[in-house]
């Protein structure tokens, strides 16, 4: 009987040792995966890190857009002139505190209206936002409230720095360091 007790104790000890060893191996493999390591060769899982980095970059791009708040009043924009940089990401937040329906519509020019750069319609008391990338070229964009264009509810978005005009509509030439007119 002593032999069978020893045998039983030995078998129990072996089973317990196998359970502990299996638990240790599983735990170390799971911990390696949890910390971003490949349990076979200990290398960092680059594809998971790259995906997380791309998501952070996309969120940062959305955050980087400069917000410009514009109000549509009875029958003017505030501000009437908006200055932006070429290629800049702009988040236009347009509010309508007035007593009339308005649009915040931006075209490449007063005459070029095939495709709007921005087109927002606002009911009384409404607020809407849109994020757009400004054109890469320096230019003046035409801002208009379509139903109130006849009463001159217009404005401008200046992309970059445009040459100043004189009272007679002529552009002024700035003198650069070489002494020649630009």
Characterization of this structure:
This protein has 182 residues and is α+β, with helices and mostly antiparallel strands. The protein has helices at 2-34, 46-64; strands spanning 66-73, 76-78, 81-84, 89-95, 102-107, 118-122, 127-133, 139-144, 154-159. The protein has two helices and nine strands, in the order ααβββββββββ. The model is unreliable at 171-182 (pLDDT under 50). It has a five-stranded mixed beta sheet with strand order 3-9-8-5-6, with no helix packed on it. A four-stranded mixed beta sheet has the order 2-1-4-7, with no helix packed on it. It folds into two domains: 2-62; 65-159, Immunoglobulin-like, CATH 2.60.40.
Jot down its keywords.
29% strand, 2 helices, single chain, five-stranded mixed β-sheet, rod-shaped, Immunoglobulin-like
Could you give a quick summary of the protein structure above?
This protein has 182 residues and is of the alpha+beta class.
Radius of gyration: 34 Å
Helix share bin: 25-40%
The total count of strands amounts to 9
Shape: rod-shaped
Order of helices and strands: HHEEEEEEEEE
Structural class call reads: alpha+beta
Beta fraction: 25-35%
The tally of domains stands at: 2
Name of the top-level CATH class of the largest domain? Mainly Beta
Record the SSE blueprint.
Elements: H1 2-34, H2 46-64, E1 66-73, E2 76-78, E3 81-84, E4 89-95, E5 102-107, E6 118-122, E7 127-133, E8 139-144, E9 154-159
Parallel strand pairs: 1-4, 3-9
Antiparallel strand pairs: 1-2, 4-7, 5-6, 5-8, 8-9
